[in-house]
Structure formats: C-alpha cells, structure tokens
C-alpha cells in the first residue's frame, strides 16, 4: 500500500510542479489583473466620474458630491458649503482621492508600476472602508463579519475579496504579460548597448 500511495504522491507532486513551472511567471499576475479589471475597473471609474466637477476642467475641481463622499464629517461641519472647506488639506485630499479612482485602477490593469499601484489601491480600499464605517455610518449588516455564515456583506466579505488580487500583485508583481515586464526588457536591452 505504501508503494502505491508513494507513487501517487510523486506523480501528483511532479504534475503540480510542472504546471507551476509553466505558469508562475505569467498566470498569477495576469489572472489577478483580469479579475481586478472585470470586477472593479468600471466600478472605480464610475465612482470617480461622480466626483468630477463640471466642464473641461472638472478634473481639477471636484464636485460637491466628491466632498460629501470622501469627507462626510468635514462637509457636514461646513454646512454642506464647499467654499467653507479649506483646500489644504481637505480639498487636496478630495482632489487626490478623485484622481486615484482613475489612475490607480488603470495602472493595475495595464500592469504599469503594478506593485506601487496595488499597494495604493489597498490603501484606498482601507480608507474607503474607514470612511464608510465612521463617516457614512453604515449598518452592522452592511459591515458584516469574518467567519460568519453570511458571505455577502458589502464591507468585510466583499472588500476582502477585492483586496486579494491586489495583494497577489503587490507581492508577486504583474507577471510577464504586462507593461512593467515590457519596459523592464527594453531597459535591459538598452543597458546592453552602453
């Protein structure tokens, strides 16, 4: 019996190692970026669009709604009058937060500066979660809990799942099929000429 189990174990190990060898340089990063793109790219871009001000320069002057979404307590204290909120630091926070919703997801999907963009998105998710819980005062059911029988809570469960592909990208990088890999190859090629 020990011989058969040992043979099955060795066969399994050899097959798994072969698959890992063939895929580790490209599949985890590509899959994480595709999952992120299919689930979150449009979500963050639509959210970012709600924060843009009017006109061609709306990306420089976030809407009142941007302040209400990002800094609900500050907006409430200012009587919902954005002109009463100082640019530094609050206006700058809203401006950078708005831009982050466009730039960071795009960088993640393209695989450009992927590790930094992924860490930035993880930070963004953390801030978004804190604002939702403390600023927008979402209900306990919306927050949810880990290791409960309900896998559908918007904050605990959903955001943990959102964070996982970003964690993979932050730790493992975007893989061979990415702009990071392409730029790295070009830089190495260029370095050999000098």
From TrEMBL:
Record-linked InterPro entries: DoxX, DoxX-like_oxidoreductase
Keywords for the protein's UniProt record, in alphabetical order: Cell membrane, Membrane, Transmembrane, Transmembrane helix
Taxonomic lineage of the native organism: Bacteria, Pseudomonadati, Pseudomonadota, Alphaproteobacteria, Hyphomicrobiales
Membrane topology according to the record: Multi-pass membrane protein
Protein name: DoxX family membrane protein
Species this protein is from: Roseibium aestuarii
Family: Belongs to the DoxX family.
UniProt keyword annotation of Transmembrane helix present: yes
Location within or outside the cell: Cell membrane
Segments crossing the lipid bilayer: 26-45, 87-112, 119-138, 160-179
Main location: membrane
């Amino acid at each position: 019996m020990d011989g058969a189990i040992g043979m099955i174990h060795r066969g399994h190990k050899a097959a798994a190692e072969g698959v890992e060898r063939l895929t580790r340089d490209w599949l985890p990063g590509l899959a994480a970026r595709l999952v992120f793109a299919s689930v979150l790219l449009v979500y963050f871009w639509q959210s970012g669009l709600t924060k843009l001000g009017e006109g061609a320069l709306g990306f420089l002057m976030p809407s009142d709604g941007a302040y209400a979404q990002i800094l609900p307590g500050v907006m409430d204290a200012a009587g919902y009058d954005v002109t009463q909120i100082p640019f530094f630091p609050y206006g700058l926070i809203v401006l950078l937060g708005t831009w982050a919703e466009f730039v960071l997801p795009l960088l993640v999907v393209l695989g450009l500066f992927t590790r930094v963009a992924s860490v930035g998105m993880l930070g963004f998710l953390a801030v978004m979660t804190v604002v939702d819980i403390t600023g927008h005062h979402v209900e306990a059911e919306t927050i949810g809990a880990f290791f409960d029988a309900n896998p559908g809570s918007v904050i605990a469960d959903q955001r943990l799942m959102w964070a996982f592909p970003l964690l993979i990208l932050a730790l493992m990088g975007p893989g061979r099929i990415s702009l990071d890999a392409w730029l790295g190859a070009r830089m190495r090629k260029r370095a050999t000429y000098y």
